[in-house]
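Lab channel / #folding
Pinned by the channel admin:
"Please post every new chain as: sequence first, then the structure tokens as a reply. Keep commentary short and put observations after the output so the thread stays searchable."

First post following the new format, from NK:
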Amino acid sequence: MDNKKTIKPGTDRDIEDNKVMAAFSYIWILFLIPLLLKKDSKFCQFHAKQGLILFLLSFITWFPVLGWLIGLAIIVVSVVSIVKTLAGEQWEIPFIYDLSKKINL
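Reply from TO:
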């Protein structure tokens, strides 16, 4: 069994203490909890910023067919992200991560 973590910023203590809080980032508007309450955690901020982008993209789901397909993709990405976050991983979601790097809060 390989316990190798693919974590870049943050420390192991930061990750262990904030896994559950960071997982809230991918549950629609709950990204605000880690974004506002865990400003000192690089792990939480990484996930909260990606959650913010997914939240903003979720407004596209109001449009028929294409919006619904995007909404389904957002749900799948969110579930995968929650699982990876709870495992202590920092998954750079394609396209989403690039946008989240531009957020300076």
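NK: Confidence is low (pLDDT under 50) at residues 1-9.
TO: also worth noting, The radius of gyration is 14 Å.
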